[in-house]
Amino acid sequence: MKKSRGWKEKFIPIIAILAFLLIWQMVCFFHWVPGYMLPSPVDVVKALVNDFPLLMHHAGVTLLEALLGLVIGVLLGFVTAAIMDAFPVVKSALNPILVLTQTIPPVAIAPLLILWFSYGITPKIILVVLVSFFPMAVGLLEGFQSVDPDMLKLLKSMNANRWQIFWEVKFPAALGTFFAGLRIAVSYSVVGAVIAEWLGGFIGLGVYMTRVKKSLSYDKMFAVIFLVSALSLLLMELVKVLQHAVMPWEYKKEK
Amino acid sequence: MDRILRAEQISKSYSDKQVLDEISFTLNRGELVSLLGVSGVGKTTLFNILSGISIPDGGNVFINRAEEGAPEEWTQITGVPGELSYMLQKDLLLPHKTILNNVILPLRLKGIKTKEAEEKAEALFAKFGLKGTEKKYPSQLSGGMKQRAALLRTYLCGNKVVLLDEPFSALDTITRSSMQEWFLEVSEELKLSTVFITHDIDEAILISDRVYLLTGTPGKITKEIEITNPKPRNQAFTMTEDFIGYKKEIRKSLFVDQVAFS
Ligand SMILES: Nc1ncnc2c1ncn2[C@@H]1O[C@H](COP(=O)(O)OP(=O)(O)OP(=O)(O)O)[C@@H](O)[C@H]1O
Ligand SMILES: [Mg+2]
Q1: ipTM of the predicted structure?
Q2: What is the pTM of this model?
Q3: Residue B7 near ligand 1, beta carbon < 6 Å
Q4: Degrees (nearest 5) of the Cα angle A182, A185, A188?
Q5: Which of A150, B57, B99, B124 lies 20 to 30 Å from B237, alpha-carbon distance?
Q6: CA A25 to CA A41: how far, in whole Å?
Q7: Do A75 and A8 belong together in one domain?
């Protein structure tokens, strides 16, 4: 029973996507939309294959920026959440500021960062740090504070110090929300890097996008869009695999 | 009489509401004493004070640090955590740790090497009916097994006195009965000195050497009953006339107080 449902859950979306691609291909094949405006899926795949070495060259840089920014963002988010958890004063002071920074769209700060830090890799990494920091800080803080107060009492009755309470109880309790936050941060980080490149730079998928846009190569534009979302999906999937490895107890619920 | 724990005139209020009023009692070495009272009377509040994680408004807690038979050496431990082994009202096993890693937590917190702690704990798994659960996670265990694991962890805290807050109250009747009998055996074997909270009259009579009744608002100790029948006891004891006699006596006291305070 359960197995067959899992099987269906996996295949229904795949069939839906295939159907979508088929309809799209038909729309182009019968010229319902002019070919220069909407390339067919086959054209997009061709563009992807033809430009593959170049795309990989750009993608490598984008990924590097995304990952560097992500690592820094995660570390900063972790430290911030830990401090906010340990000191309620800091928490009430920082909370509104954190929320406020989230109302600023990344597209709006990217040009500023480029003005300040020029066209190199630095402004891209900073933007990724900014967009990945928040989901990490929020997720971790929520996790730290989710610990049952009675659990803290128990540890206190065992004479545990704050450090021990943090590593034995709070940090493991935050892993669930940590990974939830990380999945969001990962996709933000790729998009953030692309936006920053798009607004000024010499290399990266965002730069590639601006170039193919100027030459009106619709097929290449679609190809790079697919590549960006494929990269995000791949990274999110990696996070899932990592979570399985780090949190075995979550997947051993049954007796 | 070789006493091991003494509570003297412990009082506690939360904001305006007084919860405990001058609670005094003693625990002798190797003895099991129950605190019996209705829900909300302040039993857990008292345990939080005894264990040092909460500070009373008045009164003190003392522990006798001397070995058995030696002259008593009383030390005040009011507000000092880590002196008594405390099992809270829930099992509170950490979901991310295996049973083995859960039970050795108190040893590791004291700085004992994991290897050494594991060896010490593994030797006790059979005694606590936990053989084969070492590598399992708490979510894979039944309620009764989780309580056993929490008890083993409490025992491994290694203090002279054990505080148990309604350890069996969440279990079904049949599991509870067998846990009570098992616990009676184990506590004899390990020579535990235990303060046991319960709101179950039968349980209190079955397992205790003495029962203190905690009644009223604020909670007070209104009666002390000694259960003199020899140990270890089993469920057959609950059918005897002695047992019913104790039960009547306790019910009468509880009922009188209920009327007086309602
Ligand atoms: N931290 C707290 N702040 C305010 N009031 C509290 C607090 N802890 C307990 N109380 C109150 O003190 C009273 C006694 O609570 P306590 O938990 O000690 O009862 P109990 O006898 O253990 O009950 P139960 O059998 O349900 O566990 C209750 O009225 C409760 O509402
Ligand atoms: Mg209670």
Answers
A1: 0.91
A2: 0.85
A3: no
A4: 155
A5: B124
A6: 6
A7: no
